[in-house]
Amino acid sequence: MTATTDRPHMLTEDFEAVARIAAREVEGMRLEFLDGIVRSKAMPDGDHGRIIQWLTRICLQYRPELWLHPGQGIKAQQYRAGRAIPDAALAPSEAFVGQGDWVDPEAVLMAVEVTSGDSDTHRRDHVEKPRAYAETGIPVYLLMDRAKCEVSVYSQPNGSRYESVHIVPYGTDIALPDPVGITLRTEQLKDWVR
């Protein structure tokens, strides 16, 4: 039997307690709760971290009033019943102050994922995360796929999916639509392919 948000593995509150214990007891353990299923999130490698640094510098240059919050847990999916940890979330710098481990996503302008080498990265980053972020109403989802050497920009969430998906190979400029309003020159991403 497959878990769903109608019949999850556990209640959201129970997941939060388990995730807190796992993070404290197991170094590097990060758990997510999407579609009623508990999954572990792979630890980022050095190239993964470098891509987030690159993007942080670009965001600061063009949108200094915002911050690219790395690894911030957010309440995701319909009714905020899921828990996701994007690699980064673009939001005002003070947006999450006082909210704890899992923040309200209302202030998030863009969720960012960089693929890792684990076996479920395609399902998680190309299927589950876009759906979860669209259901949450996050305006832009940016996916940098190191295996495919592609950048995907999802926008125009309709409550169940993103209406617009634009995919380009590394080396091609791509616009992040409003409310982000930045154009990425992706040539440098070729240096951090996995």
What does this structure look like?
There is one protein chain. This protein is an alpha+beta fold. The chain has a single domain, classed as tt1808, chain A (Alpha-Beta Complex). It is 24% helix and 32% strand. It contains three helices and 13 strands; from the N terminus they run αββαββββββαβββββ. It has helices at 12-25, 46-62, 121-136, and strands at residues 31-34, 37-40, 66-70, 73-76, 82-84, 88-92, 102-103, 110-114, 140-145, 150-157, 162-169, 173-176, 182-185. The strands form four sheets. Strands 3-6-8-9-10-11 form a six-stranded mixed sheet, with helices on both faces. A three-stranded mixed sheet has the order 5-4-7. A two-stranded antiparallel sheet has the order 1-2. Strand 12 (173-176) and strand 13 (182-185) form a beta hairpin. The longest helix has 17 residues, at 46-62. The relative contact order is 0.14. The mean pLDDT is 88.
> How many distinct beta strands?
13
The main sheet orders its strands as 3-6-8-9-10-11
Major pleated sheet = 6 strands, mixed
- Total helical elements: 3
Classified in CATH, the superfamily is tt1808, chain A
Give the structural class: alpha+beta
Sequence stretches where pLDDT stays below 50 over 5 or more residues: none
Name of the top-level CATH class = Alpha Beta
CA gyration radius, whole angstroms: 16 Å
Strand content: 25-35%
Helix content: 10-25%
Question: What is the H/E order?
Answer: HEEHEEEEEEHEEEEE
Q: What's the end-to-end separation, in Å?
A: 34 Å
Mean pLDDT value: 88
How many individual domains? 1
- CATH architecture annotation name: Alpha-Beta Complex
Shape: globular
